[in-house]
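PT: before anyone asks, these are the final sequences, not the draft ones from last week. 804 residues across everything. Please model them as a single complex and drop the result in this thread when it's through.
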Amino acid sequence: MRMMSLYKDKDTIIHKIDPLNKILYILASILITMLISDFKILTLTLVFSFLLLAIGKVIKNVFPIISFSLIVLVTIVVIQGLFNPNNKIPLFNIGQFVFYKEGIIYSFLLILRVLNILCAFSLLILTTKPSDLIENLVRRGLSPKLGYVLASVLQIIPQMLSTMDTILDAQRSRGLETEGKLIKRLKAFIPLIGPAVMNSLISTRERAMALEMRGFNSNIKKTFLNEHNETSMDKLIRYLIIALIIFTIVWRLVWLK
Amino acid sequence: MAKIVVEGLKYRYPLSQKLALNDISFEINEGEFIGIIGANGAGKSTLCQALTGIVPLFFKGDYGGRVIIDDVEVAKSNLSEISLKIGMVFQNPFTQITGSKLTVYEEVAFGLENMGFEREEMKRRIDDALMLLDLYRHKDKNPFDLSGGQMQRLAIASIIAMQPKIIVLDEPTSQLDPQGSNEVFKAVSDLKKKGITVIMVEHKVEKLSEYADRIMLLHDGRLIDFDTPSKIFSKDDLKDYGVVEPVFTRYCKKIGLKDERGLYPVTLDEAVNLVVKKREHNS
Amino acid sequence: MNIIVKDLYFYYKEGEDVLKGINLEFDDRCTAIIGQNGAGKTTFVKLLKGLLKPKKGDIFIKGLNTKETTVAKLASIIGLVFQNPNDQIFKNKVLDEVMFGPLNIGQDKNLAFENAKKALELVALLQKADENPYDLTLSERKLISIASILAMDTDIIILDEPTIAQDFISREKIKNIIKKLKEEGKLVITITHDMDFVAENFERTIVFNQGQVLLDGPTKEVFSKEDILKTAHLEPPYITQLFKRLGFSETVLNLEEALNYKIL
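LR: through. Structure below.
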């Protein structure tokens, strides 16, 4: 594992969309799912997200993410179906447990919301190179140092894990038992974590020096190797999403009255 | 014109009792290839750090004397400014990779981006640096996928792209296999041909003697001697300083084979030539 | 026979063999393993040590098949010093660090203490037994990591790159340690890139190249095959090169041997 990331490198229109637009899309879907409690609209937005994921050729990769949250979702259905305080009309029963219509409807709405947000996040994560996302944020004012930390962590943690393997081997070579009873494993903790901490302190200091030699703390305004041309398409998408957000809020306010 | 002037340099790390550098003075001219030798703990790394400003700007501690590069006093400047005059390459190729870039090409750009170079200038410099270090064909690879020797050359390329006039290398080959070391030595000698001043700490004295114009011998934080490889390695008290001469020199010392100046050969070629000359003379 | 390796294959990822059919036997001769990075040397010694298990073939350490023996059990027969001492040091006293291995393999406190003292004496660091390892230099830490394996008193000792980043003095120390171990009748196997170090200290040399044994024999014989060495990107020791250039047909390994010849 070279890099901790779910990014799938493919050549699609979705991949080319400005990362900022994808972030806005997440915002929009959070807002819509929070403000609107309409099955049809939420289903529609979900279908739209799936459509985008399909265009981005990453739809296969969404399912593991969804199934990961499935346990939570099933729990919601069970708890709401059984115990929602508004429960009145019984729908069906499993043995002595009676599920009610109100609770089931409520939980399905909740699931739709979660899925909407999950898909919007997946769209960003699966189709955006982390480094592009971070560079984009740095261009828009994120501190370059914070940007560096975020970007490097994704590659350096896997490197640290491989050092962990070496340490494990070195200590096992000295007869350290790392398998078996819990007490044995606990005892093995310090011999493993001690060198790991020292190693990372040493390499962090070395890396800090090396970064200093490459202008890391320079006060000059940073430039970027990669060009960043915002296409008119990107602008159009941005305005559309912003319009959608405003429309939702206004509509919700009017509708509430 | 002297490029580097060091006057009465003294330094003690924070929390340490001992002077890591003790009253060191010397000058290095533009375009020279300087080797630094000495036992572990002699102050070699600290001297490198003092030349590049890491001491005292990164490591604090007690500092005295002056390091002047191109009329700029290092201790009174700042590290990013110094990095355009003098670059430094460290021992471990691994910890010099930023980790935030996904390709070799972008990795070299890191320093240039920080220093605010224009895109066209940046690309020109990256292309040049990658060509010079023979890495151009790897430009799209992930830096962590390179071999040790390639990674160390990438570290050098990343420094060279800043176009410093001087480059300091602290044991750059110690973690590499023979092929990797040879790659780095070749790269460094190419830098010298380009007119860059090279300062290199190195235990492989046989290699160092082939390339260095002058060698600095350090011991216990002091500068013991600073002279040509022949003169340094012809000294008879090297053992006292925990260093050893190239194996050719050691052999010639044992059999008492020296040239007309009374100096011993320090490289393979010198040793062979001297023997051939003596043989001709004898017959 | 100390170690028997039969038709050994190993890979980390299927289809990318790191070791391809290694057959070797190790007697008591001090042995160097050389070859480029990536040739499979470190993987090979990890297999000897039982940290990795063969994908095909077998390894017998003193008659024990590594596939059927736990790492903990092998630890009392075969010791391995890793390249970077920082990967193992965790105690805040040198003596405790060196006693860690012996105690793990079941030596009682007194024996572990005696063995640790002996080991520290051998690496000439007994006077620093009460110090914190991280207050010492990297070279000294390297010697402590060697001592921490020596104290386990194994019959077989493997050193992975012992001379890396070491100065002349520590190199001489390591040379003496190897000599002492040899005198005690132990098998010492060393991975190294330092050809002169090989020529000075090892009776037998094995060259690994792309997961296979390219050359194996008495060190002198191996270094006489300059052309084959070149295919593995290796050069003979400097002294050997010098005598070749001076027109000697014999392979002269080191300074000691060189003094037997008249070059003028």
